[in-house]
Each structure stands twice: as structure tokens, then as C-alpha cells.
Amino acid sequence: MTLFRLNFIASLILIVAGFFVPPVGIIDGSVLTAVGLLLLFALIGQIPQMAKAGKNIRLRKGDFSAEVDTPPQQPDNIS
Length: 79
Description:
Elements: H1 3-17, H2 29-52, E1 56-60, E2 65-69
Antiparallel strand pairs: 1-2
Helix pairs in contact: 1-2
């Protein structure tokens, strides 16, 4: 199981648990912060794998943004 999937599952468990622990039915801001941090750590864990695969990676800090795309392929010269 990859790090991303493990963190994603943990995040979903935290969100669902927010409905069953007091106060019932209200997801506290600390749960949302924990979910965000878990998904951020999962994203950071994927960066080396994406870089090895030749993906273009762009991260911004202010109002966080992460973009990953595949660079255009060079045409093969067939003679």
C-alpha cells in the first residue's frame, strides 16, 4: 500500500470519526487540519516518484498550489 493511500484512508477515518465523537455531528477544525496535513504529507511523499518518472512539478506556497504534468514528447526522427 502506498503512502498516499495509507494517508488517504487515515484522513477518511478522521472525517468519519468526527461524526461519532463528541460533539456528535460536528467536524471540528482540528480534524480538518489533521486531514489536510495527512494529505499534504502524502503529496510530498509522491514528489520523488513523480520526478523520477519525468513529470514537471510546480509547487507554490502562498495559498498552496501543486501542479504535476507530463512534458511534451519529442517526436522521433524517422529517416
